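An instance as discussed:

___
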Amino acid sequence: MSSLEDAIKVSAALRGQKKYIEAIDLIQRALAAAPAEDFARLDANREGLRAAEEAGLPAVAKRFADAISIRDVEGDEEEERF
């Protein structure tokens, strides 16, 4: 299990306790430390998006959503190559 996967689980628990800022901070730190090729990055961004939406932080939610859409586009481009 990657540290991103651990961060996702802890963040979800924090979100369940309505500790949204702590959940977002944890995900942001874990994403910054994770290698670019870590497959859990998409799930981590989704968890960050959930926390930001529940916290009512639209600017933060948009950053996570943008990261998700970038990953989706990159995945589509790789699929087209094969």
Q: What stands out?
A: The first helix runs from residue 3 to 16. The radius of gyration is 13 Å. Residues 74 and 80 are 10 Å apart (CA to CA).
